[in-house]
Amino acid sequence: MTTTVKLNPEQEEIRSVARGFLNARFPAERVRELMRTGTGFEESSWKEIADLGWTGIALPEERGGAGYGVVERCLLLEEMGRVLYGGPYLSSAVLAADALALAATEADGTELLEAILDGSTRATLVAAGDLLGEADQAGAVRAAQAGEEYRLSGSGGLTLDAETAQILIVLAELEDGRSGLFAVDSSAPGIALGHGAMIDETRKTAFVEFDDVPARRLDDGADTAAAMAHVLDRGAIALAAEMVGGAQKAIDMTVAYLKEREQFGGPIGRFQALKHRLADIAVAIDAAREGVYSAADAVDSGELDHVPLAAAAAKSAAGDGYCLATAEAIQLHGGIGFTEEHDIGLYYKRALSGQPMLGSSVDHRERIAVGLDV
Fold first, then answer.
1. Which of 54, 82, 117 finishes a domain?
2. Measured between alpha carbons, how far apart are the two ends of the chain, in Å?
3. Which domain holds residue 36?
4. Phi and psi dihedrals of 314, rounded to 5?
């Protein structure tokens, strides 16, 4: 890995521990077993992840977190991407936890956040559409107030881990046009989950519909649009980090194969044309990694004005890089790369499913163009 991203000794240790843990718990055969289950993960490993403090690694200690930053969380997500981890980390420990920490009031969100961080409760963020990264997506779910109670109706769109989450954290539009944040028990009457044919079997998603569902408001009555836009930017950075890890694993698998596969009296990796293709992939992955950690550092250093465009650049580069790396990897593996039995296909499917999530590369390039007024 050639990159200008430099880690301090503690960060190197975090990455090393994460890689060792995830490689031991989620070898390829175990990932295939889990993707055929209804949940995509096992409770015991999720509890281990919570016990390691990973669920709150990017949150301050006063909110129950470990007191590190988004950079350290990206290190974990890179390693999760390498093994195609399919558990609720992105949905519960990133999107839902960040929404509670940044957009909910301390009185209303603390108890639930603590339960998420200790692993006893799993939650997911319902932000309408396909979590496209825009706060105005709240308009697809509407919140009506009747006295002290709120009722939600509308389409929450495609949602990560909706079927296994115990709590839905919902961004909804209020009657006055502002947005609010609400907690909904996933077993409440009026919630319907729809399942389509998803290309990525390692990650579980469902379409969520609300029909007059009781909800508890989590914010203080102010418009949550700005806070939730930041939550979704942090989510885009997290997903980009995961994609970089998957892309790196794809190229590592391909390099290993090209060294082993022999043709015309030697390994095919010696051919210059193949080296050029690998070099193009490596450059794309390095560019994406640079973008991820630049965006993460902007969050951690408090440069919030830079975060939206930095997050857009990171997600755009990671989405393109992951799709390029896995598509090329399939080609470079030859006939075996197209078979269901080979693991490279799982990475390609993860790349395709992650591309539109939290904003596609096209969406984010448009955000950059608008932000730079070009």
1. 117
2. 34
3. 9-117
4. -65, -50
